[in-house]
Design a protein that fits this description.
The protein has helices at 9-20, 30-36, 52-58, 107-111, 135-140, 150-156, 159-171, 177-186, 195-206, 215-220, 223-226, 228-231, 247-257, 262-270, 292-306, 311-323, 332-342, 344-359, 366-385, 399-404, 411-426, 433-444, and strands spanning 25-28, 46-48, 62-66, 71-76, 79-85, 87-89, 101-103, 122-124, 128-130, 143-144, 174-175, 280-281, 287-288. The protein has 446 residues and is of the alpha+beta class.
């Protein structure tokens, strides 16, 4: 693992420029970790003994990124590189940010303030690796361990707990025992982190390769502070032939099964959160959850507003949750009616959601459910190939045509178009201008 790192020529130039002017310079953090794991870094961050104003003097094109915390971005060949001065952080007053930072000339002091050992490794082309906290060994062991006292690290910045779980889900690393215990002890501090930052980390966890690690959020107690509606699902058994897991585990399996697209991941996370409040048990001991869909929609909307979702994503997710349990008939008319009601994009995502839901249920019934979803997709493709009408824009008449026949402008135009669309959905061959205008006159023109 200890190898020469192939770094971009711009990074070498930055380090050389710093060194020639009497300053230290190293690449640091995630890019070093990624290289050691044979991953390609997406960003190259550097740390230096030079103060921000000295960095700005040495390079022609720079801009202030976080000047109060010592970070300046240097632009070389239209590429951007963040350079941060070695620093020591003062007292944390809000469990998120230090009240003040002090610059230092000691690299190891700077590395000792970082979150996890795997992110506290520096590298220089001539000097090699600087690893005072044992991060290289932890990377070998696939272990996430805090630098120093984990309680102190999380009390300083509560977001680090979510970051640790996110790294576990992205890298398939295990969180070291003392670090994990410290997360459990300090889980309540996550309440100090902004909704935007929490969502940002959850987004990354949901898109991570090892999404099953999401369970750590529940096991450590963090989930009950950030998504209590989801946390409750892990305590609700589903005694039903179509289910083999509790609601929470089923939910995670559904998240894992769906396409790696963020709105779909959130849809699966929320699709059954109404179940805990709507569980009933019949005389045979079988669980039922009548009304859970409507409750899931209400709870999901509340959560997404709390986490500051954008309106477009929120509306799409709510639509998918609303329809996720719909038992659609395998015929053209029903498919076209649903296409009209929810739109083509939502319909295709609806099929993906239903497939993921089926994968997360009792595997005994999966083939049957999968076959039905395949049939629905085949019907959709046939509708598309034959250019059959299922939207108002595909009708061979429009509002202006109706006005010319004597129908009044305004609300009635929409009513007539809806009526004609229903006719065409039931009978595609009637989508002809003269036929539709005739039908409209018969019903609406006195």
């Amino acid at each position: 693992m200890l190898k020469q790192i192939d770094i971009p020529k711009e990074v070498e130039e930055i380090i050389l420029t710093l060194n020639e002017n009497g300053y230290e310079g190293y690449i640091v953090g995630g890019c070093v970790r990624d290289i050691l794991m044979d991953r390609i870094p997406t960003d190259w961050d550097l740390t230096t003994s030079a103060k921000p104003e000295e960095v700005k003097r040495l390079f022609k094109r720079t801009y202030d990124t976080g000047i109060a915390h010592g970070t300046v971005t240097v632009i070389l060949n239209n590429k951007h590189f963040e350079i941060t001065t070695y620093r020591i952080e003062g007292i944390y007053e809000d469990h998120r940010r230090p009240k003040e930072v002090t610059f230092t000339n000691d690299l190891e002091e700077d590395l000792s303030r970082r979150d996890f050992t795997m992110n506290a490794i520096a590298y220089h082309p001539q000097e090699g690796f600087i690893d005072p906290t044992g991060g290289i060994e932890d990377i070998k062991k696939k272990s996430i361990r805090c630098v120093g006292d984990p309680h102190k690290r999380f009390e300083e910045d509560a977001l680090r707990m979510l970051r640790g779980i996110r790294f576990s889900s992205q890298l398939n690393f295990t969180i070291e025992e003392n670090t994990l215990e410290a997360i459990k002890t300090n889980a309540h501090l996550i309440s100090y982190v902004s909704a935007e930052r929490i969502k940002e980390e959850l987004d990354k966890i949901l898109l991570a390769k090892y999404i099953h690690k999401f369970i750590i959020l529940h096991d450590t107690g963090i989930l009950k502070f950030i998504l209590p509606e989801v946390d409750r699902c892990f305590e609700v058994a589903q005694n039903h032939p179509h289910h083999v897991d509790n609601v929470g585990i089923h939910t995670l399996k559904a998240v894992e099964a769906v396409d790696n697209i963020l709105p779909l991941k959130w849809t699966m996370l929320f699709h059954d959160i109404g179940k805990p409040e709507h569980k009933t048990t019949d005389e045979k001991g079988i669980s039922h959850f009548h009304g859970h869909v409507e409750k899931s929609v209400l709870l999901a909307e509340k959560i997404m507003k709390r986490l500051r979702f954008d309106k477009k994503s929120m509306n799409h997710i709510l639509k998918l949750i609303k329809w996720h349990d719909y038992r659609i008939k395998e015929d053209k008319q029903t498919v076209k009616e649903l296409l009209y009601q929810i739109g083509e994009e939502a319909f295709l995502d609806f099929l993906k959601v239903q497939l993921a839901d089926a994968r997360a249920q009792n595997p005994v019934y999966f083939e049957e459910k999968e076959e039905k979803i395949k049939n629905l997709y085949t019907i959709y493709e046939e509708i598309k190939v034959k250019h059959e009408c299922f939207t108002l824009r595909d009708l061979e008449v429009n509002g202006q045509d109706l006005i010319k026949t004597g129908i009044k402008e305004g609300k009635q135009i929409g009513e007539v178009l809806e009526y004609l669309l229903k006719i065409v959905i039931e009978n595609p061959e009637l989508n002809k201008k003269e036929i539709l205008l005739s039908r409209a006159k018969e019903k609406y023109v006195q």
